[in-house]
UniProtKB/TrEMBL annotation:
The gene is cmk. This is Cytidylate kinase. Residues 6-205 form the Cytidylate kinase domain. InterPro entries: Cytidylate_kin, Cytidylate_kinase_dom, P-loop_NTPase. Its main location: cytoplasm. GO terms for cellular component: cytoplasm. Keywords: ATP-binding, Cytoplasm, Kinase, Nucleotide-binding, Transferase. The keyword Cytoplasm applies. It is found in: Cytoplasm. GO terms for molecular function: ATP binding; CMP kinase activity; dCMP kinase activity. The keyword Mitochondrion does not apply. It comes from the Bacteria. It comes from Methylocystis bryophila.
Amino acid sequence: MSGLVIAIDGPAASGKGTLARRLAERFGLRHLDTGLLYRATACVLLDEGLPLNDVEAATAAARGLSLVDFDEARLRSREMGEAASVVAAIPPVRAALVDLQRRFAACEKGAVLDGRDIGTVICPNARVKIYVTASPETRAQRRALELTARGEKTDYQSVLADVKKRDERDGSRSVAPLKPAADAIVLDTSDLDIEEAFRVAVEIVERAKR
């Protein structure tokens, strides 16, 4: 990877996606929200009426994905987030999507990727690795507000339960469990607004470029 690869990892609703998009714009790089790949895989299964733990069907769906024509509004729903966490725990699904993500990152100029295992598995040699996190309570509040703004009926307590369940599932899976890379810089956004978090993230990238 000769370009500037920025790996952004972190749990659900930590703010990593927003930071990744803004960093990509700031540094003129392409951006890939890798979580959408798992959401799109889950969406295929749900549309076909197949169980989310159907390994063969989930793997076939992952292999058939492209990086275009995603219905982001649907994929970012609460239902799809929960479903994505289930299929993401299937090792052959993760294996099927590794090459797709690495090809995206390997362009000459570089790229920004955000997800759960970018710095640890997908781009272990990325020049910049940031692990974005926040307390479960903060993340649940953010997610509840986001879902309400989209018109989805929700409540804080159920969203908090979902966040904690996803943290447990993502952190305990056998392949590529969610954790900071050994050389990642941890950015806790619990007490930061988006502008403050973005400023810190830009400083991290600028230091790495020197």
